[in-house]
Automatic annotation (TrEMBL), chain A:
Source organism, top-level taxon: Bacteria
One protein family per Pfam: UVR
Keyword Coiled coil: yes
Protein name per its UniProtKB record: UvrB/UvrC motif-containing protein
Domain UVR: 139-174
Keyword field: Coiled coil
Organism of provenance: Paenibacillus profundus
Coiled-coil residues: 139-174
Entry keyword Transmembrane: no
Lineage: Bacteria, Bacillati, Bacillota, Bacilli, Bacillales
InterPro entries according to UniProt: UVR_dom, UVR_dom_sf, YacH
Automatic annotation (TrEMBL), chain B:
The name this protein goes by in its record: Protein-arginine kinase
EC code(s) of this entry: 2.7.14.1
CDD domains according to UniProt: bacterial_phosphagen_kinase
Record keyword Transferase present: yes
Amino acid sequence: MICQQCSQKPATLHFTKIINGQKTEFHICESCAREKGEWIPGTSNGFSIHNLLSGLLDFDLSGGDSGTSGTAHANKPQATRCENCGLTYSQFSKLGRFGCDECYSFFGDRLDPLLKRVHGNTVHIGKIPKRGGGRIQRKRELEDLKKQLQLSIMNEEFEQAAKLRDRIRDLEKNPPGAAEHNG
Amino acid sequence: MAGRRFMEQALSDWMRGTGPDSDIVISSRIRVARNLSGLPFPLLATNQQSAEVHTHLTAVVDEPEFAAINHFQKFSLVEMNDTEKQVLVEKHLISPSLANESRNGVVILSDDESISIMINEEDHLRIQCLYPGLQIREAWEQASRIDDVFESHVDYAFDEKRGYLTSCPTNVGTGIRASVMMHLPALVMTQQINRILQAVTQVGLAVRGIYGEGSEAIGNLFQISNQITLGQSETEIIDNLYSVVKQIIEHEKAARELLLTDSRTRLTDRVCRSYGIMKHAAIMDSKEAAQRLSDIRLGSDLNILNHIHSSELNELLVMTQPGFLQHIYNKSLPTDERDVYRARLIRETLSKSKSKS
Ligand SMILES: [Zn+2]
Ligand SMILES: [Zn+2]
């Protein structure tokens, strides 16, 4: 098999990744891998998906939905530049890297298709920092309760709905700030 | 910066221990990526900003909570020479990007080298925990504990929707990469490996192996790791990896049994042939060394060879890498000379191991 990158040398690194059930195979020669700067000498795990992925991002973002290629850019007026660090969206899609933590909020929902493609998900459900995390925990709980409330109203379970409404009120009225320290 | 103990031994102390399933699983690793809020990621940070990151994070390591975990030493990358950096990369204690591209880069190592904390790599903070054998849960518990200590002293970049914010979108969310290094010679010999690895990639895991000319991975070593970091909890990620690795172990064991019953003589020949060549060859390139080491490791696991310990093989795996080789012989070596020195080092190590028994 010939290297996908240079189409000259035999591919000696073979790599498969699955994104949303879509399989992509990479076949690359050692010198191309080395050029990518992610090579750990002589080890079997010196191959990072990040650089391969940055190519993928580039492709994703210009193409819109999977499978369609083209140049049509999203015509929604969304932030194209992070006002905190100055990184533009097109720089991001070339680099495959964010410039700062605020890039995430400036680029906002525009990141959803990309995150969906990489992770199959767009929302974090794992560990939360303990400090300041109490507020987030409470917010998660509130959102959850509100969903349940809507559901029980839809199902005409009014007794249950009343209970839920009371709990939501309680939570909103008395944020258990005493439990949380700021340092 | 006195006493660079990481230069003295090829094998980190943690690798001398054994863990569950260590006949097939070489090591388990967790890497956690974190960033400080309010400072640009290392890619865009100015010198002053990366120095600030350095100051904040190294200060945490001096806190008493850290001493309770292990004894740590800090090393600045700018104060290291190229061989030292290369040795750390070969021992998997730092990444090539920390070695070559970081500004104000620091590595903080526990004495047994099971914990490596990188500052100003691709993210401000990367916590790595390595355990021998299949101990991926243990590695996560340790990494999470260290994460908690940092978190109690600094403000992390965290978003309630996206989780821990990282420089690369492939790490966002939990920021964890869990990986297991497996030795799978029997699955390769019985030609089941592709089918199995393909199945593995169907469940959101990545497999990495470096392949030689044919279809055999060099040294028959494969790294299995999670791809997804967002939308799954840490426990889900680790449990998923663990259960898949357990299944691969069962397949490898069955394939080893099959080889022993169906072709014991051929297997014995292959193992002993590799052992003989390693004990006597005068030129040995790194690819061949890795393949022969794999044969010897399998022979030792199956009691075809019974005076060789896996820790010696792990040691050889690291010692025969270019950086360490040049460090041992204390000079820079061109490739062809390296092969001569590598062969010499292997001969010496293997004859030492025989006299030990
Ligand atoms: Zn190439
Ligand atoms: Zn930014």
